[in-house]
Specification:
Chain lengths: 204, 204
DNA sequence: TAAAAAATCATCCTTTTGGGTGACTATCGG
DNA sequence: CCGATAGTCACCCAAAAGGATGATTTTTTA
């Protein structure tokens, strides 16, 4: 497995080099160091890293959050903020840019390692849970009349896009049985269709 | 709006009181302090807080991650780890328990504030994004034949559980038009049904 | 062990979707 | 001005899904 390549965006050279040292020590590869917004954007485009460490308070008219927004919109890679004196307004903007994590300055080697690992892990989680599974307990928590195991299995299958016939085959029962389960699901969820059911439980 | 109530789980009294001071200073309410796992569980059940600050390295045979797992499974509240000397194995377990955030010790007032705010915000985001919106650009990034604006609007409506007739009414066109759009969507997404379309784009 | 709940299947009928095809109009870029 | 693209609509037919009702068999549980 090849190394994870990280871009550091930090206008203070001493800190930047410091971080670079830490990262290479613990076996990450630093794809580049950008001291300005423009350098960062250039690096992103021409030498795309796997993750970005991003100083919020760049000494530039466009700050780190500006870069964050671009990363969020155009690239699919996680970025972690390095924050020091984040005022409330800056913090608000930062939060909305969907960062994978934060590391609060002043930080030592351990902080960077922990923050980075955790952020990367979380991001990976988000990416790989391509089929976010439904949870029976979570769903039933919200229902007066809880779903039975069988009904839940059917709901799962609906959620995954299966037809009634496919479910019947997979579960070794007749389509009529599936339809009965579905009718009961609709009653309990108070919806009129499979798509409505999906929309309703999606966030549960 | 009432104060956010926070439970502190920390076996070192000096640190615990320290954190309590910080939190009350910045207008959070500390619902309680637990020095042991049992105390923590008791507090959770009988005086349920809105969030938990959780020391990973409790001096107990059951550590903070044990509590984290219970919180994750039984309560819907966010928890933030206070970590100091997290070894790799502990870190691995911690990551899997789905924390809302981390704060690395030694921390000062600013760290706690920033970590807590961010964690709570992220958690709130997760909870409230009941209808995660689809993104045309994200979807088109993955398609050979990109969706048109109109097709995307229809896909959105499908995603929200609408019927063809409802869409037609809402968009002031005939059901036939909607059906044409849907047929084209299926071609481009390479799916045979609305539920399959939903399942396919859900994670995009 | 008797009652309740869950799972199974059927039948009839209606509505919604999906597939295929053709056509008209508006817009935009060369 | 022409061709490509997008948006609109129609008609036909087939397949899938939904609504209502009743019934039988397991399984659970009080």
């Amino acid at each position: 497995m090849s190394q994870i390549r990280i871009l550091i965006v930090e206008d203070e050279p001493l800190i930047a080099v410091d971080i670079e040292q830490v990262l290479t020590d613990i076996n990450y590869e630093v794809s580049g160091i950008a001291f300005t917004v423009d350098e960062a954007l250039h690096q992103l485009q021409h030498n795309t890293p796997d993750a970005v460490l991003l100083d919020i308070n760049l000494d530039d008219e466009k700050d780190g959050i500006y870069i964050a927004e671009i990363i969020h919109q155009q690239y699919q890679i996680p970025f972690i903020f390095l924050t020091s004196h984040a005022d409330r307004h800056t913090l608000d903007r930062a939060k909305k840019s969907n960062p994978a994590g934060y590391i609060v300055k002043p930080f030592d080697e351990k902080d960077v390692l922990a923050g980075l690992e955790i952020a990367l892990y979380n991001h990976a989680q988000k990416q790989t849970q391509s089929q976010p599974k439904l949870s029976l307990t979570n769903i039933n928590k919200k229902l007066r009349h809880p779903l039975t195991d069988r009904e839940f299995a059917v709901l799962q299958a609906i959620y995954e896009g299966q037809t009634n016939q496919q479910m019947a085959n997979a579960m070794f029962v007749s389509v009529n049985t599936i339809k009965t389960h579905i009718a009961n699901i609709y009653l309990k969820l108070d919806v009129p269709s499979r798509t409505a059911a999906i929309a309703k439980v999606r966030s549960w």
